[in-house]
Amino acid sequence: MEALNIRDEASDRSATVAQNTLQLIAFSIGEQTYGVEITTVREIRAWNGATPLPNTREFVRGVINLRGTIVPIFDLRARFGDGQTSPTKNHVVVVMSVGDKWVGILVDAVSDILTVSKDDIHAVPEGNSIDTELLTGIVTHESRMVGLIDLHAVVSGAKLDG
Amino acid sequence: MSDLDDFKATYFDECSELLNELEEQFQAIEEGERGADRLNAVFRAIHSIKGGAGAFGFTGLVGFAHAFETLLDYVRDGRIELVDEVVALCIRANDIVADFVAAARSGETLPSDYGAEEKARFDALCRGESPDGDENGEPMEEFDIEFTPVMVKLPFAEDEAALTLDAEADAFEEAPLAGTDGHWEIRFIPHTDLYARANDPLLLFRELAALGEIDVKALVADLPALADFEPFGVYCTWEISLSSPTVTEAQIREVFEFVDGDCDIEIAQLAAMPAREAAAPAAAAAPDESTPAADEPAVSFADLAAEITPVAPPKPVAPSLVAKAPSSEGAAEEGDQRKNGVQSIRVDLDKVDRVVNMVGELVITQSMLTQQMDENLRVRYQELVRGLEVLAQTTRGLQDSVMAIRAQPVKSVFSRMPRLMRELAQKTGKKIRLEMIGENTEIDKTIIEQLSDPLTHMIRNSADHGIESPEKRIAAGKPETGVIRLSAEQAGGNILIIVEDDGQGINRERVLQVARDRGVVGPDQQLTEEQVDQLIFAPGFSTAEAISDISGRGVGMDVVLSNIKKIGGSVHVRSVPGKGTRMTLRLPLTLAVLDVMLVKVAASPYVIPLSSIVETIQCSRANFSRVPSGAQVLQVRGEYVQVVDLALRFDTPTQVESDSRFVVLCEAEGGVKVALIVDDIIGQQQVVIKSLEENFERIDGIAGGTILGDGNVALIVDVQGLKSSISHQNAA
After folding, report:
1. A111: closest CA of chain B, how far (Å)
2. Mind listing the pLDDT tens digit for each residue in B146-170?
3. A42 touches chain B (CB under 8 A)
4. Minimal Cα–Cα distance from B233 to chain A, Å?
5. In a shared domain, residues B623 and B576
6. Could you state, in order of their start, the residue ranges of all structural domains in chain A?
7. Torsion from C-alpha of B519, B522, B528, B530, nearest 10 degrees
8. DSSP code per residue over B318-353
């Protein structure tokens, strides 16, 4: 429905506005909602454990076997500094491509697919360095705040010495 | 990529194979095997390179290869004796051909006089050895003209010099008139196959023109009306008369060597030899048959070309349209030989890799299925169990076969080394002999590709730093010629590549001095002789007093180490002052499969490469003691070995009681042992190595990952990495 509305509006105005929209996969960590661009998402799978990697930061949950390829899993909650998630079978891993690498992000649940206009993306308020470091922007969707994840930032600095 | 680029790529692939073969043949020839088959093999290879080069218009290469070929031909005929000097020249020429090919491949231009000196020497040799030198020298000079990129001017029928066919038929009867000049009559009837294989008669005629003066006539009597013209049909045959005092039938046949079987060739000599004509009725049949043809519209070659070009010249024909061409006996024989020889196909390495990966997955799935079979199921489904057993066997067979596809003899790298050695000997003014042993040892292709640089550096190092100058050697009571021995052998799950020289050995004092000066080694640090030797692999390390053209810049040996490490191998150097140095590369047989021991550390699975494990000991029986620093050491067979508790090292607290844990004694590079402590030993298995770096980054102490039968990931312990991080800590 959402997509339809936007498209109708877009045709009223100009074609460039249609190109100006962004489709997001939204997922939740606790009460918070975050989103990543849908084109980066490769697959969504249930949490099924991971082999821990030694000498990495606590937000690196380990590696899983994704059809013969080894993919690292990042705990988004831990990345934001809220401590490690205690995952259950109901937790979800969102597998995404970052550059030429594939990574998994451990989240509580995947909630929605959203279509937003790029014009509606707000800058992240200065203040908390974790927010500005890990988010590229904030959009409002149905009065909920959705933080846009900067994937490159999330996966960087994974090693203890690095 | 255009078709032509495709052809070019294939041509260059073939060239590198041929050049490898040439290098091999020359190696044998140099060692004294000077049989005819060696020479023939060389000749064939050069000829093939030349042939392709002509098709792509690499004139420099064609020119040089042609001159080289002429020399080889003389050698083959016995007109030039294959003395050492000639062998040396041939080997040098071979290097030049390789340079031409490399330049053509990369699109570089070599200096126009590249190889001219050698060419002049061929010329001199050919002239010097033949009885009437001047005359024999001529074809060589002429060829220079031929290979300029200008169109060769063919004398046409109108030209006075060329005889018309009738006149030549007369000449037949009035043989004495022909004098000493050799007149040849060639009838050339191409089949559709000839065009299907992308041959161009014009190129053949040009080559004939290089032999002597030629007169080409096209017989187009069979040319149908335009309406009936079949685009792929062959309607034109040619008659060529060739005048040259020296040319032999074999030379003419050679021109047509590439189209042998795809055309009918009739060659007859018209010169003063009626007796010979009678003795060879087959050959004589040619001019007889052609007599009626003279009544038909004979068009000069140039005219014909002008006429038919707009219509569409005979073009390559679809294979289905090709009628089986009657092949000459020679071609049939050759075909049989080909059938009996090793048959091979070219396959993109990517495709093989895909198969390797899929087979890897299959192995995992198969072992997963086998693990699912518990005792209950075994009893209830006996058929299923049997099926799984067969599956396991087949999978293993499949895996071995796939790995065998990737395995290649190390020859392909080794064969590049003799040339390097010649150049090094020349540059350093030392006398060096290269011995190669075990070139047929097979190893994974990826590893072979990674070997070229390290081997080059190692041999350079041996030639530059190891082998002494002839004077020094004589003074030291050694033979004047130094020996560098390059050998490959399989040792268990590894391939050992050894570069050994009988030079002066590593100057340990100097190495240590330089290492201390550069801060690689601390001032108080004491090193064993072996550790000092190993220092030459440190980055930026060079003891050469003067930076030579060959080595001494300090890059090189560290490249060896890093390249070899990258492919999961290790380097070990051993040196005896005054006697020589031996560098050993220990390489895995294949990159894809590893024999491992599966262990547990803090409930997580890890695997340790079996090749590095010496023994396993229960902790309760192990003899631990503490050194003053507080670090734990293990006493085993009179040796004190450093201990690494993997749970501590990997910062993963374990609940397992220390007495029920295990010691895995491993041997790292250079025979240094390290004792790893793990929680439990699960068993041995084969695993497929997966990269961690593909999606993550390198982790200290971890060499990679692998996927176990249950689908979980296990990490591969990097024994070498763990050991070096220990010495790092100690040094700090």
Report:
1. 26
2. 444 444 444 444 444 444 444 444 4
3. no
4. 53
5. no
6. 2-152
7. -20
8. -GGGPPPPPPPHHHHHHHHHHHHS-------HHHHH
CATH architecture of the domain A2-152 equals Beta Barrel (2.40)
User: How much of chain A is helix, strand and coil, in % rounded to 5?
Assistant: 25, 45, 30
Its pTM stands at: 0.48
Which residues in chain B are contacts of A62 at CB distance < 8 A? 713
Give B652's contacts in chain A (Cβ within 8 Å). 52, 54
Interface of B with A (CB under 8 A): 357, 360-361, 364, 604-605, 649-652, 690-692, 694-697, 699-702, 705, 707, 711-715
Residue whose tokens read 């909630």: A111
Please tell me the distance in Å from B570's CA to the nearest CA on chain A.
Answer: 24
Residue B309 has pLDDT above 60, yes or no: no
The predicted model gives B281-293 an average pLDDT of 44
Asked if B650 lies within 8 A of A54 by C-beta distance, the reply is yes
Domain extent at residue B177? 165-335
Per-residue tokens: B387: 């099926």
Count CB atoms within 10 A of the CB of residue B610: 15
User: CATH code at B702?
Assistant: 2.30.30.40
Q: For residue B180, is it within any domain?
A: yes
Q: Mean pLDDT over residues B10-18, rounded?
A: 82
Contacts of A74 in chain B (CB under 8 A): none
Q: What is the CB neighbour count within 10 angstroms for residue B274?
A: 14
Parallel, antiparallel or unpaired: strands B580-588 and B570-576:
antiparallel
Do B328 and B363 share a domain, yes or no?
no
**Per-residue pLDDT, B2:** 61
Do B114 and B188 have their domain in common? no
| Co-location of B299 and B173 in the same domain | yes
- Is residue B379 assigned to a domain? yes
Number of domains chain B contains: 5
What is the complex's ipTM, to 2 decimals?
0.82
B434-446, pLDDT tens digit by residue? 999 988 888 888 7
Among B697, B706, B716, B729, the residue to mutate for chain A (most A Cβ within 10 A): B697
Rounded distance between C-alpha atoms, residue A48 and residue A66, angstroms: 11
- The 10 Å Cβ neighbour count of residue B534 is 21
Same-domain check for residues B203 and B238: yes
Q: How many residues does chain A have?
A: 162
Q: Is the pLDDT of residue B217 over 80?
A: yes
Are B419 and B313 contained in the same domain? no
The answer to whether A99 contacts chain B (CB < 8 Å) is: no
Q: Please give the structure tokens belonging to residue B53.
A: 């080069």
Contact B699 A62 (CB under 8 A): no
Contact A54 B692 (CB under 8 A): no
Q: Is residue B342 part of a domain?
A: no
In a domain, B376, yes or no: yes
Per residue of chain A (162 residues), give pLDDT as tens. Answer: 444 444 444 444 444 445 788 899 999 998 889 999 999 999 999 998 999 999 888 899 999 988 778 999 999 999 988 889 999 989 999 999 998 899 999 999 998 899 988 888 888 888 777 777 888 999 988 888 899 999 988 888 777 654
pLDDT score of B548: 47
Residues A53, B699: C-beta atoms closer than 8 Å:
yes
Tell me which of B550, B572, B588 is where a domain ends. Answer: B588
Q: Which amino acid is at B261?
A: G
Which pLDDT value is given to residue B487? 92
Phi, psi of A97 (to 5 degrees): -105, 130
Q: Choosing among A42, A61, A65, which should be mutated to test the B contact, i.e. which has the most B CBs within 10 A? A: A65
Give the one of A49, A55, A68 whose C-beta lies nearest to B700's C-beta.
Answer: A55
Answer whether B712 sits within 8 Å of A56, measured CB to CB: no
- Name chain B contacts of A156, Cβ cutoff 8 Å: none
| Residues B205, B194 share a domain | yes
Q: CB-CB: which of A55, A62, A102 is closest to B695?
A: A102
